Amino acid sequence: MKAFTPFRKYALAGSLALVLAGLSAPAPAADTVKIAEITELTGPGATSGTNFKNGVDLAVKEINDAGGILGRQIETTSADTQTNPGIAKGLAQKAIDDDAFAVFGPVFSGSIMVSMVVTEEAKVPNFIGGEAASITQRGNPYVFRTSLTQADAMPKIARYLDGRKDIASIAVIFVNDDFGKGGRDAIIEALKSTHVKVVEDISTSSSQVDFSAAVLKAKQSKADAIFAYLHEEESARLLRELKKQGWDKPIIGETTLTGQKVVELAGPAAEGAIAHVGLTVDAPLRGMKKFNEDFQKAYGYVSDHNGIKGYTGVYMLKAAIEKVGKFDREAVAQALHGLHISVGEHPGVLMDVTIDDKGDLDRESFLVHVDNGRQKVREILPPLSKK
To answer: Which among 3, 35, 89, 223 is least surrounded, fewest beta carbons within 10 Å?
Structure first.
């Protein structure tokens, strides 16, 4: 039998002390709440995903500087989906394995469709940037939008078109993916109750470079206007081709037609384009003006709508956690459904917002046009609940 040396005695005593200290000391995670960012930082969705991530990070810094949420600091991790649905799904699982309290992203609807299955199974709140109507039609109680759905936006566009007596026909140009098909279906359905007829339905591809054939087809249709629903980079290419081919009729769309990145890429070709947007830094709101200034100071450029989505999404999560009064994922998800968040109580949401039982939003939105390289708000449109 080996002798029990003093060294072994002190070593065991020290080990025992460490074990006991570990049992009695609070876990480091008790002082933080984890948020996982799963966004498109490369690939076709890089502009959207980077803006969304930067918006999240700006809100996190503000909240942490102000004391956190219920005394806890927010801890973030960031991962790149590469605009690939398969990678997005794997990253969602990694976020769950890392015990994220909530997941932010992706932005592209195709990736959301697969990644949200993982977050739903784990019962983790998931704040997404996608606008495809089908996302929240699947009954997932843990997915929450940070923007208006296509089903809410398109009726507003249809009402605008119905009020323009100079537009009796329209050519629809859309990107043939989950995002584009959802918007295309929604605008065609919404226009059925108006005097405007769809005379051409033109499908394009994600990352498409050459839009000459699509524009020629729209011109040959003799349509009074074009409704364009594509991703940002493709929207800019379409606008440049329309100008090249001498299109001089109205060009109308949604948020992705007149975003700041589109305006920068399209240059003079974006002038006059009209869109319904759920979020814009050019909105005449005090909170939005401050967000715009703070975002530019932090990142050196003007945020598009995706940056605002990420930013306001974090404040939506904060409001729900504070309402529940504890860090309980299921309780927070339940509290978000039907929750009305006012700017008066939670300035970070920027606009009063109500979240419905599907995770969709209802709030004011804007009709804008591009003038001298900037979005200009033509009209503030009320929430659908006030119609």
So the answer is: 3
Checking if the pLDDT of 12 tops 70, the result is: no
DSSP 229-243: E--HHHHHHHHHHHH
Contacts of 41 (CB under 8 A, 6+ apart): 49, 50, 53, 78, 80, 81, 82
The tokens describing 331, both together, are 């309780």
Q: Which two tokens stand for residue 304?
A: 């598009």
Alpha helix locations (H) across 130-249?
150-162, 178-191, 212-220, 232-244
Structure token digits, residue 218: 């729209």
Q: Confirm if 372 and 273 have CB atoms less than 8 A apart.
A: no
Rg for the chain (alpha carbons), in Å? 24
Phi-psi region of 125 (alpha: psi -120 to 50; beta: other; left: phi over 0): beta
Render pLDDT for 83-111 as a digit per residue (tens, 0 to 9).
999 999 999 999 999 999 999 999 999 99
Backbone dihedral region of 275: left (phi > 0), alpha (psi from -120 to 50 degrees) or beta?
beta
How many other CB atoms are found less than 10 A from the CB of residue 337? 14
pTM more than 0.85: no
79, 91 contact by CB (below 8 A): yes
> d(Cα 385, Cα 292) in Å, to the nearest integer?
28
Token code pair at residue 291: 């967000």
What pLDDT was estimated at residue 387?
A: 57
Rounded Cα distance between 352 and 340, Å, is 7
For 117-134, what is each residue's pLDDT tens digit? 999 999 999 999 998 888
**Strand 225-229 relative to strand 251-253: parallel, antiparallel, unpaired?**
parallel
Neighbours of 202 (CB within 10 A): 20
Q: Which domains does the chain have, with CATH numbers?
A: 29-148+285-363 (3.40.50.2300), 151-277 (3.40.50.2300)
Single-letter amino acid code for the residue at 47: T
**Which DSSP letter does residue 72 get?**
B
